[in-house]
Amino acid sequence: MAEFMAQGKQPEVLFWVGCAGSFDDRAKKITKAFVKLLNKANVEFAVLGTEESCTGDPAKRAGNEFLFQMQAVTNIEVLNAYEVKKIVTACPHCFNTIKNEYPGLGGTYDVMHHTQFLKALLDEGRLTIEGGKFKGKRITFHDPCYLGRANNVYEAPRDLIQKLEAELVEMKNCRRNGLCCGAGGAQMFKDAEKGDKEVNVERTEQALDIKPEIIAAGCPFCNTMMTDGVKAKEKEAEVAVMDIAELIANAQDL
Amino acid sequence: MPYLSNIIFAIILILAVGYFAKNVKKLIRNIKLGKDTDRTDNKSQRWKNMAMIALGQSKMVRRPVSGFLHVIVYVGFVIINLEVLEIILDGLFGTHRIGLAVLPVSVYGFFIGTFEILACLVFVSVIIFWMRRNVIKLARFWKSEMTSWPKNDGNFILYFEMVLMSLFLIMNATDLQFQVLNSGNTISQFIAPWFSGFPESTSHVIERGAWWLHIIGILVFLNYLYFSKHLHILLAFPNTFYGNLKPKGQMTNVDAVTNEVMMMMDPNADPFAAPAEGTEDDVPEKFGASDVQDLNWVQLLNAYTCTECGRCTSECPANQTGKKLSPRKIMMDTRDRLEEVGKNIDANNGEFKEDGKQLLDDYITKEELWACTSCNACVESCPVSIDPLSIILEMRRYLVMEQSAAPTELNNMMTNIENNGAPWPYNQMDRLNWKNE
């Protein structure tokens, strides 16, 4: 982003990578797949790089409003200094926080989830999606809570899967009734309370019930939880967990 | 004493309505113990929500079986209450079926006939409801919070409705003048033969008895509401009106924290500045909620509105996987504690006297609070726009910001964010490494 600023230019969109997308080995693959798609569609985009910091989402959900606001205000200062207008992110938690909770603290931007952004590129004819190797495959989509219920985005990811000419199959609980993967509300960073099952195993069982070849996700944390769930059920040889961006990029061997 | 029955009726009516009004006043007082929150924006959307969700039952029918049965009982309840109007007028003026004096027989018959059909449908629906609770034993009615009073309360309401509907039909069946008209006795004509063996005077006594028990039953039921989960029949309307209109993922930003943060970020702020004149003795605002008075009034209204149907709990991922958290219990605990606080205020001449108890720990445990994934399934599933998640978040805020009592792993996560801008211990300078990998 600093380079754009130095040249006196504004990118079309700022890609907010997020902590998972920056540091988590699995999520980094999602980041790279999405970047390939942005390049393919000739989108002039920027990242904040080392100037990006956690949005504060897990702190806020854990109850630490103070830490959340410190993070938010710092990020907003950076974003406003670069005169950022439009943000896209592959993480529904970053998406929700920046879109809904930053405006009250002085940061108002046009924020899109990467599935919405890819759908828009597709509609504008800037990106073409081919089925490629996913043609005819059974794919189910796991709704991330912070994309679905939290922000009512249900169709963009499904539209993209259908463009792959894949067979989109729905789990028992989907869309607004989607079952959580178990990571939200800062659960990602702690052990679960005592119970008789892990939430991600319950959700993975729902997915495996409909015998998909691929479980599609739209959130790096859901991705981790579902991948762990598939491993726990010893099905990793038959069922892959992939982000929508990876599906589209891989279909075209990008 | 020709007016004796009119007078007795009027006294009963005044007592019942008066006692109910007194409790409604108490209810409003208790709800107002909550903190202020502004829900006056976007009125048109609010009216629309009330019309669709409360009046139109749009979220009830998402579960088709219970939704359909509930619509029958709801429509029956609303429409049959027109008959109560006639009963009250008859009772006050000593008339009998005053409707016949003002309406043509066919129109009157149409009304009563409709009421009779509805009464019959309500009766059947209520039987099915009872069986779902007590014979089929649906899981959500048998969770750990549904013992003793909550369990009995649910059944009492169903018995009440069965009895009221039966009395209405018996009253019509034994009213010989009404049966002779043969208009509007759609259902009661089939019940009338059961009483045909009795002399006319006995039928009259039964008819009068059913009439009195029916109206007294309704007045008792009215006053039962305040003590019961059944308050939802009234509060569903304000509750859906004042419900949250923002995206469900948006959690409130705490203004008191914003002030602090902005001061910290302001390079011109004087760290040694004395507090503004007159504010030295102000108690700093408490962060989050440890008791009902720390919640806002909408959250307290939510608690009174909850009818303990358990849809939230049955959708909750934590509850489904055996954790202690039950969103319904969060609402029930909030109401129970609020009632306790209200009684405390009544007993101490309008002032709350510290009772050494609070909502946190004495009602809702930390274990429940930390099990929440903030997925909003409970909020989405509530047919009357209750938001248990907002209460859970407020209580977490108290635990973290007032007590520093977060689980260790979460403390580590927060320390990481503070030190290196990510929930994991990675160096912020490595954020762009993915570019070259």
Strand-helix topology:
The complex is a heterodimer of chains A (254) and B (437).
Chain A: H1 2-6, E1 13-16, H2 18-23, H3 25-40, E2 45-46, H4 57-62, H5 65-81, E3 86-89, H6 92-101, E4 110-113, H7 114-123, E5 138-141, H8 155-163, E6 167-169, H9 199-209, E7 214-217, H10 220-232, E8 240-243, H11 244-251
Parallel strand pairs in A: 1-2, 1-3, 3-4, 5-6, 5-7, 7-8
Helix pairs in contact in A: 3-11, 7-8, 9-10
Chain B: H1 4-31, H2 43-55, H3 64-93, H4 99-102, H5 105-134, H6 148-173, H7 176-181, H8 188-191, H9 200-224, H10 232-241, H11 255-265, H12 297-305, H13 311-315, H14 317-320, H15 327-347, H16 366-370, H17 377-381, H18 388-402, H19 408-420
Helix pairs in contact in B: 1-3, 1-9, 1-15, 2-10, 3-5, 5-6, 6-9, 10-12, 12-15, 15-18
Quick rundown:
The complex is a heterodimer of chains A (254) and B (437). By secondary structure, chain A is an alpha/beta fold. Helix content of chain A is 44%, strand content 11%.
Attribute tags:
heterodimer, A: 254 residues, alpha/beta, Rossmann fold, 2 domains, 4-stranded parallel β-sheet, 11 helices, globular, B: 437 residues, mainly alpha, Fumarate Reductase Iron-sulfur Protein, Chain B, domain 2, 60% helix, 0% strand, oxidoreductase (chain B), transmembrane helix (chain B), iron (chain B)
Give an overview of the whole structure.
The complex is a heterodimer of chains A (254) and B (437). Chain A has 254 residues and is an alpha/beta fold. Chain A has 2 domains: 119 residues, Rossmann fold; 123 residues, Rossmann fold (3-Layer(aba) Sandwich), CATH 3.40.50. Chain A is built from 11 helices and 8 strands. Chain A has a 4-stranded parallel beta sheet. Chain A has a 4-stranded parallel beta sheet with strand order 6-5-7-8, with helices on both faces. Chain A is globular and about 50 Å long. The model of chain A has no long low-confidence stretch (mean pLDDT 95). The radius of gyration of chain B is 28 Å and the shape is elongated. Chain B is mostly helical and 437 residues long. Chain B starts with a helix and ends in a 17-residue tail after the last helix. In chain B, helix 1 packs across helix 3. Chain B has 2 domains: 207 residues; 155 residues, Orthogonal Bundle (Fumarate Reductase Iron-sulfur Protein, Chain B, domain 2). Chains A and B meet through helix 2, helix 3, helix 4, helix 5 and helix 6 of A and helix 11, helix 14, helix 17, helix 18 and helix 19 of B. Chain B: Keywords: 4Fe-4S, Iron, Iron-sulfur, Membrane, Metal-binding, Oxidoreductase, Transmembrane, Transmembrane helix. Chain B: GO terms for molecular function: 4 iron, 4 sulfur cluster binding; metal ion binding; oxidoreductase activity. Chain B: This is Fe-S oxidoreductase.
